[in-house]
Amino acid sequence: MSTPCPRVIAIDGPAASGKSTLGSELASRFGYDFLDTGMLYRAVTLAAIEQGVPPDDAACAEFVRHIRIEIRRGNPSRVLVNGVDVSDRLREPQVEEQVSLYSALPSVRAALLPLQREFAAAGRAILAGRDIGTVVLPDAPAKIFLHASTEARAARRSLQANSWGVVQDSAGAARDILRRDSIDSSREVAPLQPAPDAIVIDTTERPFDAVLALALEALGCAAG
Ligand code: CDP
Asked: Which of 17, 41, 95, 153 most suits a substitution to test ligand 1, by most atoms within 8 Å of the C-beta?
């Protein structure tokens, strides 16, 4: 007899490591809501760029007090800024370029923390990001950390980018990924790192089905 699935699942890992694909698949099997928390940082970045607010902590502290970020629950969940759904704009090159600068700011992280905790508290949920298992939900009953080689992640990201309507070859994707990984891992607040109790899965040589099988085995539960 298998045990029930954990009510909340945290998935962390670097850019293009497969978090959203795994999170969304688990969410659809279990009937959970899925939030890619990177969308929240991207939404703040998009809004700040459009308002001409630089990636400076004092300026952003003031800025985030005056914008309303909302999450529309689902699989995947969507993100609204001041009532406007911006989910389809979050992969624009200007956001890609600057998101790690804005997300390193303590004021931005502090503003987005309660939203993520509320999302997790309000129902069965899977959250993917960089600091879910370490900072947002340190007591999450299930934590998965995905990683993969830069080459594998760059190849995946350049394929994904095409489907988002952005032209990016593997070399360009690798440069972008390495730059963001470096900022995300070295920032002072909530750096990218596996929680000590996370199950680590290397997705470099594994097809998605194999990653899914390992995750399901680690979660040790049946759907429903
Ligand atoms: O899709 P990809 O993994 O490339 O990126 P993402 O998950 O959309 O995250 C975009 C950026 O947001 C990351 O590079 C981080 O700078 C930031 N982020 C973060 O700081 N903390 C999170 N929990 C999620 C994303």
From this structure: 41
